[in-house]
Design a protein that fits this description.
By secondary structure, the chain is an alpha/beta fold. About 45% of the residues lie in helices and about 15% in strands. It has a five-stranded mixed sheet with strand order 3-2-1-4-5, with helices on both faces. The protein is globular and about 55 Å long.
Length: about 270
Amino acid sequence: MSIRSQCQLLGISRSGYYYEGNIETKENLEIMRRLDKLHLKYPVYGSRKLGKLLEREGWVVNRKRVMRLLQVMGVEAVYQKPRMSEPLKGHRIYPYLLKSLDISGPDQVWCSDITYIPLQQGFMYLVAVMDWWSRYVLAWEVSNTMDSDFCVRAWERALGNGRRVPDISNTDQGAQFTSEAYIEAVESTGAQVSMDGRGRWIDNRFIERLWRSVKYEDVYIHDYLDGLELGRGLSKWFRDYNDHRPHESLDFECPGDVYRDPQAHGARAKTR
């Protein structure tokens, strides 16, 4: 199988296939790995408190260093900050459309998000597209750059196999999702664009829970070497998540069963 075919199958870019590391020092990569775990445990903590936690563990860091590493990781505390909800210059911010919405079936709302993934010699970014009602992961991609291209690829993959276009696509206000390329990709299909309030993880809570699961059940355990290993591991994990893992919120059904046959399996799916 060609390298291009392997990358398409595994959901990684060709640059990710050859990815071996980045310019961060070994110590910084270790700190970033620890920050990732601390952020999952204390999502409301900002750079000051996370830095204090690191200091208590014996790390020699200052707030400026912690802030820079969190920025590289694409991580921020999940509380509302003054004026943080303002759109970036040149980008439109869309309203949050899910408040009080009765989500009653598959392909009504899809949600997308990006997370940082540590590797042995560096890190990558993971984006996923999830069906809100069934928790079914429709598509995912990994990249060594946090740009809009791999988000667009994930959206396009989610629409593959003749899948119905969702009524609404919900994301956060990150630059990748407010980019012209991503907005055009979504709106050209007829889907409405919805965006979380800045720093409000609760607005996209199901995919935030997905990140906790994939990291503690796969990424941290296997400690992948590079993008190719990561792609292979995630491919296996997402198949298991979709088709073999029962969810309490789905009355202990699997997301794939609920998504594909909602009348038989999804009567008691909870969306709140």
